[in-house]
Amino acid sequence: MSSMVDTGEPTRLQRIWQSNMAYSFRRNPVAVVSLVIFLIIAVMSLLAPVIAPFDPYDPASIDIMNSEYPPAWVEGSEPEFILGTDDQGRDLWSTILYGTRLSLIIGLCAVGLQAFLGISIGLIAGYIGGRLDNILMRLADIQLSFSTLMVAIIFLAVTQAMFGSETFNQYAIFFLIAVIGVAEWPQYARTVRATVLAEKRKEYVDSARVLGFGAGRIMVRHILPNSLSPIFVISTVQVANAIISEASLSFLGLGMPPSQPSLGSLISSGFDYIFSGSWWITAIPGVVLVVLVLVINLLGDWMRDVLNPKLYKG
Q: Which stretches are transmembrane (predicted)?
């Protein structure tokens, strides 16, 4: 009867758990708490159709007579509305769950687009160099001279005028992802280009050229993996920036329509009711937005410290 032979080699999960990054994470209570809070918010928002007692996108479940009920701990509340209702009679708890999910989707997809454009342009500019590098980096400089919000406001205002409000509202999520994604690619491009300029002079790249590998394979399979550390840090911060940009645009009326509320449009819809006493319509989504952006930024700060040898102290 054969017996199992223990090779003593740790599994991939064990290697991850024993890595310096995991060790640093376990020793950093701020990072641990931030990740736990982010996961709670993300999981609850993704499970919104299951958790939410009402569907804020379904007009049949909305009664205007239920508008502006306060939260459960305020006098005059209704037990079925834990966080109260907004000006349209929608359950605020349900609307925040769906709105947070929408804000996270826009933020993550916009950062994905930023990363794809920026990494591609940075790799090409840094590896090929010469005139193409100068042209691409001057485009990045021009792009960086305009603020994201200014570019987004102009683009979305023109788009809304061209296609009309109905069509714009129908495809608002795609317009937001596109404009936020295109407006921020230079952050990635400049960082990746700087890494490529340092990496392409190393011996492993010369060896790959001698073996006959093409430029595309060398950039993607050999140089790009050595550029991932700064990309992870940038991506974490950019998710928070993208969520803030979406909230700002929605607050200005150039983002998600009232029928598909994000956190920004929720804050905007309740802004007119703050002084009339219905503070919760704006205040509660505002707190959720602040907490979400804060924990993402704290995770980004921790990741930057760990991945930067000059800052990491073990």
A: 30-52, 102-130, 142-162, 168-185, 231-257, 277-300
